Amino acid sequence: MWAEVRRHLGGFSSPVLTAVDRDGYPVSIRCAPELDEAEQVLRISLPEWTGIRPGPASLLCHGHNQLLWNLRSFMVRGIIEPAGGDAWLFRPTRFIPGIGVGGLPGMVRFALAKRRAAARYLQRRGLARPRIDWAQLKAVQARARQPSPPSLRSPG
To answer: What is the pLDDT of residues 3-39, one digit of tens each?
Structure first.
């Protein structure tokens, strides 16, 4: 698992750490974890105001290009513990590949997990799976691709 964390973490500039604060509420903050190869932990500096307490935590790495394509993500679950001052240690316990990480098997796992999550959501609420009027959707898309009349174009 450490090899996967090491291999993928460098491609993300500001992962999001989520942990619990002193009052038991979730706290999420962008951070810049540093690999500690000797101890196989991530060293993270956190401001005091976060109020994070030791315990379970997760690190979400997510990225895409400016057009929101080339999605890639993964999550690492673990334990966060103080290391003195504003320094904390994040001890990874599980690497969870997301979209764009883990190749084709990762994409399939991601798609199936989202499908199951949607089914659970609908089941808990007693809702039927919504029907999509594909013909209507394609008609809207076709209209959107048509050039707008000169009177509606923005000046300039």
So the answer is: 999 998 988 889 999 999 999 999 999 999 999 999 9
CATH architecture of 2-97: Roll (2.30)
Task: For residue 51, give both structure tokens.
Answer: 């109020």
Using DSSP's 3-state secondary structure scheme, residue 55 falls into strand
User: To which residue do tokens 């089941």 refer?
Assistant: 123
Q: Which backbone phi and psi does 150 adopt, to 5 degrees? A: -55, -35
* 76 touches 44 (CB < 8 A): no
β-sheet bridge partners, residue 94: 77
CB 83 within 8 A of CB 44: no
Q: Count of CB atoms within 10 A of residue 21's CB? A: 13
Q: What's the predicted TM-score (pTM) here?
A: 0.70
Q: What is the DSSP letter of 152?
A: G
Which residues touch 63 (CB under 8 Å, ≥6 apart)? Answer: 11, 12, 70, 71, 72, 73
